[in-house]
């Protein structure tokens, strides 16, 4: 994460209707975040996806 500390803020919750089977989830619009970097590759810059998907999904450890 790359961010400006003086620009961070907690915005209001909003409903996003992007979950399968017509349900919804709560989300918040970002504020102050400049970039998200995963594995050294920028994945989000100034609120827009770069299209890069480095890495992989982590699976739970089975004990």
Describe this structure in words.
This protein is mainly β and 63 residues long. The chain has one domain. The protein is 0% helix and 37% strand. The chain contains no helices and six strands. The strands form two sheets. The chain has a four-stranded antiparallel sheet with strand order 1-4-5-6, with no helix packed on it. The protein has a two-stranded antiparallel ribbon with strand order 2-3. The model has no long low-confidence stretch (mean pLDDT 92).
Q: How would the blueprint of this fold be written?
A:
Blueprint: E1 2-3, E2 13-16, E3 25-28, E4 33-38, E5 41-45, E6 48-49
Antiparallel strand pairs: 1-4, 2-3, 4-5, 5-6
Identify the notable features of this structure and list them briefly.
63 residues, mainly beta, 4-stranded antiparallel β-sheet, two-stranded antiparallel sheet, 6 strands, 0% helix, 37% strand, extended
How many DSSP helices? 0
Spatial gap, N to C terminus? 32 Å
Largest sheet: 4 strands, antiparallel
Radius of gyration: 15 Å
Brief write-up:
By secondary structure, this protein is mainly β. It is built from no helices and six strands.
């Amino acid at each position: 994460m790359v961010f400006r500390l003086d620009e961070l803020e907690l915005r209001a919750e909003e409903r996003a209707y992007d979950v399968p089977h017509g349900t919804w989830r709560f989300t918040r619009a970002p504020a102050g975040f400049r970039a998200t970097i995963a594995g050294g590759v920028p994945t989000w810059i100034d609120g827009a996806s770069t299209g890069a998907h480095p890495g992989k999904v982590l699976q739970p450890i089975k004990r």
